[in-house]
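Hey team,

Sharing the Ammonium transporter run so nobody has to redo it. Sequence (510 residues) first:
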Amino acid sequence: MATPEQLTQIANLTTPAWLEKGDNAWQLTAASFVALQSIPGLCVLYGGLVKKKWAINSMFMCFYAFAMVLVCWVIWAYKVSFGEYMLPFAGRPGPVLTMDSVILQSNLPSAGVMQNFPQATMIYFQFVFAAITLVLIAGAYLARMNFTAWMIFVPLWLTFSYCVGAYSLWGGGFLFKMGVIDYSGGYVIHLSSGTAGFAGAWWIGPRLKHDRENFQPNNVVLMMVGAGILWIGWNGFNGGDPYAASPDAGVAVLNTNITTAVSLLCWTAMDVIFYRKPSIIGAINGMITGLVAITPAAGVITGWGAIIFGVCSGTIPWISMNIAGKKLRLFTHHVDDTLGITHTHMVAGALGGFLVGLFATTEGCLAFGLTNPGGAIDGNGKQVWLQIVGALFIIGWNLVWTSLIMMFIKYVLRVPLRMSEEEMLIGDDAIHGEEAYCFFDHVDGLEPSMSVEHRALERLARIHAGNDHKGHQTILESQDVEQGIATDAFPGNPLKKEEKNGEPQEIKMD
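Structure output:
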């Protein structure tokens, strides 16, 4: 029988006084939403958006990054991002793998705040944000980055780039203390991933010429599934950052959807005006830029502000992608950003961070737990400059460290950043020994004998003769049977010849 002291200890662990079950439930739900944005959201979005020969490689880059980030996160990276002070831009590294480090009340020591749920919940919630940042970066490197180089890049960039931005802005670092606002990752996640995508694409080099000229999506329906998961998953992305099931969480979710809808419509309008046709891929880009732009401001602006954000995010990144991205030599010859991460995340992230300096409200900041007296519309013009300083730090840090990591992989470790030309020509089968959409299994040792094959041919001929009221003679070729596509033998065969006006007609298949 347990002693009174043991019973008290058990009670303190199962229902501690600091635990708010609603907050804990919402935080775990929000974290799961964000995890689904990566796996499977961006996996299937990328897999459908690229050419068929790159579907597996694109999804695998996402899948690998998600797993690797988690292992690094719990061994050292979480504490670099949210641990005790070590430097103005980094916490002291260390593991979070003991029971004491995960079951007690969540605490961000450098920021001086605590949450009403266990540390384990905070660790997982922050992990899914770190993971999606690496998954976003992958979008700029698709269709030519050496997979081994990517395997090395992920833990290095997480440690030296992501963790620094997270600690500086969220964990209690110098930008946090200056008062830079980044509600849910406009700078930490999107500006950093867009900048890393830009810099890394320059180091890796462009895709093959014919891949750049013809990069049609292989599965638009699959792409739309990923886009839908991304949009709805953003309710957890922005709604989870008050660290509570609070009124401000509801404001963040509503504003997120308003901006996204307006941005999608504006991007579509731009496509119609300039290209005379609405594009589903364009609409997805508009959706993404809206989600990115509202992220640094979601819970601190009004609904009217969210509409303004949407108009800006649906037009300015459109100009960046469709004019600058197609005309500037920098993008046409040097920086081949496969999925346009530079435009949808770097440009849109910087735009959203700047706009929050203009449109942040005093009430929204208070509801989020900030002491900032709003933005320029509330008379605090200083906030605009603070946002610019934060953006410049994130851009500069990521340009330098992404380049250093790429040089380390290439020149120190001697691992090529690019696939060989042969691998780029072949794609998934050369890199992973697999192909997307495999409909046939070829199993050795099950080929029928000649006698069995002959009997099968005779039986099929008799069946066909009984169904052929016109009495046509059917000739079966054994190789056609082996392939399952006998030309005339099977009624309903998709390759069967039909007659039209007395003449045989071939039915063409896509």
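Residues 155 and 175 are 24 Å apart (CA to CA).

Ping me if you want the raw files.
A.
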